[in-house]
Write a structure and sequence with these properties.
This protein has one domain. It is built from five helices and no strands. It is elongated and about 65 Å long. The chain is mainly α.
C-alpha cells in the first residue's frame, strides 16, 4: 500500500538541473565565448525535449503521468506532450534565460560606474550576481508558469 507516486527522473532527480544549464550559461556570458552560452541552451533544450517525450510516452503506454491522468488515446498523448513542452520551455528556458540575461546586463552596466573596480573583477561580480540569483528566481518562475498554464492551456484542452 504505497501511495507515493513513482520517481520522475526528469523532475525528481538531479537530471532536473540540466534544465537550468542555460541560466548558468547566461550568468557566465560576460566571461565566456558566445558559443558556450549557446551550448548551454542546447543542454537545456535537450532536457526539455527529453521530459516532453517522457510525458508523452508515459501517457501513450501506461495512461499515466500526463495532463488528464486518462488513457493513452492520441488526443490525451498530444495534450500531455503539449503541456510538458510548453511548461518546460517557459519555466526552464525562456523566462529564466531572459531574467538572468537582463539581470547580468543591468548589473554589469551598473558596475561600470565604479571605475576603481578593475574590469575583470566587475565581470566576475556580474557572473556572481547571475549565479546567486538562479536559486532565487526558479521557484517563483515555476509557480508563475504553472499558474499561467492552469489558466490558459490546461483550461483550453480539457
Amino acid at each position: 500500500m504505497n501511495d507515493k507516486p513513482p520517481c520522475d527522473i526528469f523532475r525528481d532527480t538531479w537530471v532536473r538541473y540540466l534544465g537550468y544549464a542555460n541560466e548558468v550559461g547566461e550568468a557566465f556570458r560576460p566571461i565566456i565565448p558566445g558559443c558556450l552560452v549557446r551550448f548551454s541552451y542546447g543542454i537545456a533544450f535537450s532536457y526539455v525535449f527529453g521530459d516532453t517525450m517522457d510525458k508523452g510516452f508515459k501517457m501513450f503506454v501506461k495512461g499515466c503521468g500526463g495532463l488528464l491522468q486518462e488513457d493513452g488515446r492520441p488526443s490525451n498523448v498530444m495534450k500531455a506532450t503539449g503541456d510538458a513542452l510548453i511548461w518546460q520551455t517557459l519555466a526552464s528556458i525562456v523566462i529564466p534565460g531572459i531574467t538572468i540575461n537582463r539581470l547580468c546586463a543591468y548589473s554589469g552596466r551598473a558596475l561600470t560606474k565604479y571605475k576603481r573596480i578593475p574590469s575583470p573583477a566587475r565581470a566576475l561580480l556580474t557572473v556572481g550576481i547571475g549565479l546567486a540569483s538562479i536559486p532565487i528566481i526558479i521557484v517563483p518562475i515555476d509557480h508563475g508558469v504553472t499558474f499561467l498554464m492552469d489558466h490558459t492551456y490546461r483550461k483550453w484542452v480539457t
